[in-house]
Amino acid sequence: MLPKRISTSRTMIRVTTPDDLKQIHNWLSYPVPFTEYNMKNPLGKEKDGKYWWEQIETQDRVHYSVLLLETKEVIGIHAFISIDWNKHIINNMGIRFRPDLCDKGFCTETLSTLLKSILASGIKSIKLDVSAINPRAVNCYKKCGMSIISDAWYKHYGDPIDLKNPIWAVHLQHLKQEKDFWLRRHYIMEITKKSISSHQNKN
Ligand SMILES: CC(C)(COP(=O)(O)OP(=O)(O)OC[C@H]1O[C@@H](n2cnc3c(N)ncnc32)[C@H](O)[C@@H]1OP(=O)(O)O)[C@@H](O)C(=O)NCCC(=O)NCCS
Q1: Would 97 disulfide with which of 50, 76, 136, 199, CB 3.0-4.6 Å?
Q2: How many structural domains does the chain have?
């Protein structure tokens, strides 16, 4: 049984409700090069016409909302998706923080607490897939105890790439130009019951 509600110093984390989704609908856009992560990106719609983050009734998912303790506003989501309940493995995650509240330590604070609690509840391994050209996300997940276990190349569906712009040029080693599209490196990251204890001993 996964945890239902956890507190951190600035937030409350609890299972997402339909009312939370209404707030998330009003989040603004992320800046370039992160617009692909916009909550209303049409590519994020599933067969039923709803966005991936609205699929809160699905059997193989548990979505958590992060609320500010002071105002009770929803400022983030940690969606655990593709859960194999028999093998006790979570195969992927979707994480978003409200665009105006990124880079303020909220993901590190909440994800580290949540991962610890979920692994203590009997889940053996939690994996996620993250673009290598999103070092903020990679860095945050590493701080939460996750490690890179493999990589893979996927078609880039994000903002147009222009190597003259330093935004993209710094990521050259993670980008490959094909005929009329770009491939980009993704990392698969994982945390397990075993790895979390060695991470905790180091910190
Ligand atoms: C990625 C995301 C979930 C991280 O949450 P967050 O609350 O902003 O992250 P935190 O502030 O806890 O931690 C980010 C860390 O990355 C660091 N960082 C920021 N920009 C960076 C960059 N360009 N390169 C390397 N590290 C960077 C920050 O300094 C911070 O580390 P520090 O605390 O040691 O200084 C959030 O920014 C977000 O929702 N981004 C848009 C959507 C997205 O990218 N989702 C993830 C898809 S996998």
Answers
A1: 76
A2: 1
Nearest protein Cα to ligand 1, atom 13: 140
- How many whole angstroms separate alpha carbon 174 and alpha carbon 98? 26
Return the structure tokens found at 88. 């006790």
Report pLDDT digits (tens) over 13-58.
999 999 999 999 999 999 999 999 999 999 999 999 999 999 999 9
CB 71 within 8 A of CB 18: no
Query: How many whole angstroms from 48 Cα to the centroid of ligand 1?
Result: 31
**pTM (two decimals):** 0.96
77 Cβ inside 6 Å of ligand 1:
no
Q: Is 97 in the pocket of ligand 1 (CB under 6 A)?
A: yes
Burial class (CB in 10 A: 0-12, 13-18, 19+), 91: middle
| CA of residue 35 to ligand 1 center, whole Å | 15
- The CATH number for 73's domain is 3.40.630.30
The parent domain of residue 72 ranges over 5-202
- With a 6 Å cutoff on the Cβ, whether 136 touches ligand 1 is yes
| C-beta separation of 61 from 75 below 8 A | no
